[in-house]
Amino acid sequence: MTLRLIAGLIVSVGFTSCSNTNNNGVSSATGWKINDKKGGFQYNTNFEQKTPLGMVSIEGGAYTMGRIQDDIMADWNNNPKQQYVQSFYMDEAETTNLMYNEYLYWLKTVFPTSNDVYAEIYRSALPDTTVWRSSTGFNETLISSYLRHPAYANYPVVGVSWVQANDYSKWRTDRVNELTLERAGYLKKDAKIMEAYGDAHFSTEAYLVNPSSVYGGNKDVVHQGVKNKAKDGQRNIYATMNFGLFTAEYRLPTEAEWEYAAIGLTSSREYNSYQGRKTYPWEKTKKQKSNSRGTALKSQYANFKQGRGDYGGIAGWATDNADITNAVKSYPPNNFGLYDMAGNVAEWVADIYDPNLDQESNDFNFFKGNIYYKNRIGADGKPEIVNEQSVVFDTLRNGKLRVRNLPGQVAQVIVDDSKKQLEEDLSPSAKKRKNEITSVNDSKSRVIKGGSWKDRAYWLDPATRRFYAEDESTDYIGFRLVMTKVGQKVQTKKTKN
Fold first, then answer.
1. Is 258 in a helix, a strand, or coil?
2. How far is 237 from 233, CA to CA, in rounded Å?
3. Most buried residue, 12, 98, 365, 394, by most Cβ within 10 Å?
4. Cβ neighbours of 143 (radius 10 Å)
């Protein structure tokens, strides 16, 4: 291997190089030269992460998570508690119908529905469009048009369960990594379009453990090297995690991350403390202005229900310019640059719903619902890659099927002691009250945050929290994704204010 092995880093998507190197490229441990052209240890010593496409950077910090207004619902499920959130990236807007349709198209192309197994994979990803149906209302047009029609392309996707949102996030991770490796010369150009079929497609986890499994072996790979000039014998050279090409995974935000991002306290900071806290994601003092599409907002900064039978004002005076959902970015962003953190649709977060959170909960990157997985090892001692014959479907509580791992992905199993570890991690008070949680609030109930077009103003407060079954969906819940920021918390130099 040579320095040319990682030269493709300069064309990667989402990353860039900086000018500094460690010890002039010499190992401080051995004195050997790193990335020597003659061979030896190869490593990206100039790595720096950039904000991924469609996301904004959220600088982490301490904040008070929980209720700041009267608990009119009497849930007593969000008492204030001090938390610290690590820096991360977040989608600037909710996942749209257009984005989700791209996912469905990919599934149907790589797993043609003429194959019975593949057809079930496609069906398991389809949003439930019947969520618009009502026993005492007429919304049949939305059932057939909302997901697919171009008029709703930039509206938030709904009818997607928590389970489906997680599957989408894994798909998005793979597609971004796939394009990055192609541009860096580690994957054949356009193979993602011309050769992806069944278990012969790109999976990040499969590539890392068995890169020759991608595209049926990927035998024609030629690493492009410097200035796109391939060198003799440089075939079947694969990227590793050392090269800094692979993005951190896209995922649903934790409840703590979502609430922290929604509040957007940056404008109320004075030196190292916050001066009060907002009830809603926007500032009360913000002047009235037009939205990103030039439509003047009459009186609202979010899409929500003003009262019974009032979803958007009267004719000629549309208070929020919407009756159901609205196109994303139709209202001003908060101080982090995030749109629709209140109203439009409520959003799935990763956490299991537990009404008994207390001050003894973890105060760093709090998350409720850790389950750990490991790769399934085959008889040959290598991680198993799922194929058409070994694909497994889980039956959800609503009777629908969900593919556990797609063909071409690494088969994974739950770590045996994860449930035991979760029990050990509970605080004494949480253990005492654990059995008091009703069957409704079980391990299949997930937290949803933010108000929606069907909700009154109370739910626009980022501190409010509700739950919904992870395998069910509705017409007022959507989602957006986040990504953990690797490396340094803040890359820009601080200046005195």
1. helix
2. 10
3. 12
4. 15
